[in-house]
Amino acid sequence: MNINQRTLLVFDLDGTLLSSEKTIMPKTKAILHELRERGHVIALASGRPPRAVIPYYEELGLDGPIISYNGACITDPKDNEFPTYHYFFKREWILSFLGQIKKDEIINLFAESGTTLYLGHNSDQFDNMFHKEGMLVINGDYEKILNEDVYAFVFQMKNDEALKKLKEINLPDKTLFLRHWYDCDGIAEFGSTEVSKAAGIKRLEEIYKIPHGQTIAFGDAENDVEMLSYVASPFAMKNACSKLKYMVKNITEEDNDHEGIYLTLKRLFSL
């Protein structure tokens, strides 16, 4: 990487750019502002929906792209000419998957289309996870309430043992796989080989004409695996899951609560 060339810097949110209190550390905020002023492209990449990313985007004063829903949606909130991207998990896939699982092994379900949230039932845990503000929320039997394709499908099994049994299920499309949330007992989501944060970054390289060698990304969780496998300069947070730490040789010297990103960028860009 050449620090004097325009660089694409991509940051996961939860556990990476955000502290445990869901705030951006002050020195991290300041150095991202400086790098943006120098002409580098700052992008946020999250499993969150756009509405839950934009407050941090605005706090940082950004004017570039957002990769949301783990790459299923790529937008630029300030550029109507930006070539947006959308990927949806089909309703029929979800119903086929659920048809192979015993109902008493499922605690709850969540799906989102961008305007509507579909829940198996209300729960404090899911309320805190999925940013329901301003959304139409429908609860009930998925065969009756789910009437469209969705950006995201998340489910919670009664425990990790029930989750492990899902390896025996025939997924309804060859591009699908299941991604376990490493810090949440029994929770997993649909993933697709056709969509990821990595695929989103590749699109941004093409849009902004940034050489692959000038890409940097920071992450902490399993939904960052593809992203950190793809970029030229990957960094796992000190607080990252063991899978990322095993995979990536560059580990931040501090965690997300102690300016891990700031210290790394300060060293990389000699600031």
How does this model look, in words?
- By secondary structure, the protein is of the alpha/beta class.
- It has 2 domains: 8-86 and 195-268, HAD superfamily/HAD-like (Rossmann fold); 91-192, 2-Layer Sandwich (Hypothetical Protein, Haloacid Dehalogenase-like Hydrolase, Chain: A, domain 2).
- It has helices spanning 26-37, 50-59, 91-98, 124-129, 142-145, 160-164, 197-208, 225-230, 242-247, 260-268, and strands spanning 8-11, 41-45, 66-68, 73-75, 85-86, 106-112, 116-119, 136-139, 152-157, 176-180, 187-192, 215-219, 233-236.
- The strands form 2 sheets. It has a 7-stranded mixed β-sheet with strand order 5-4-3-2-1-12-13, sandwiched between helices. The protein has a 6-stranded mixed β-sheet with strand order 8-7-6-9-11-10.
- Helix 1 (26-37) packs parallel to helix 10 (260-268).
- The chain is globular, with a radius of gyration of 19 Å.
- The protein starts with 7 loop residues before the first strand and ends with a helix.
- 41% of the residues are buried.
- The model has no long low-confidence stretch (mean pLDDT 93).
CATH architecture of the largest domain: 3-Layer(aba) Sandwich
Mean pLDDT: 93
Number of helices: 10
How does the major sheet shape up? 7 strands, mixed
What strand line-up does the widest sheet have?
Answer: 5-4-3-2-1-12-13
Helix content: 25-40%
The ordered H/E elements are EHEHEEEHEEHEHEHEEHEHEHH
The geometry reads as globular
* Poorly predicted runs of 5 or more residues: none
Beta content comes to 15-25%
Q: Compute the separation of the termini in Å.
A: 16 Å
Q: Identify the CATH homologous superfamily of the largest domain.
A: HAD superfamily/HAD-like
Class computed from helices, strands and strand pairing: alpha/beta
C-alpha Rg, in Å? 19 Å
What is the number of independent domains?
Answer: 2
Number-wise, the strands total 13
The first-level CATH class name of the largest domain: Alpha Beta
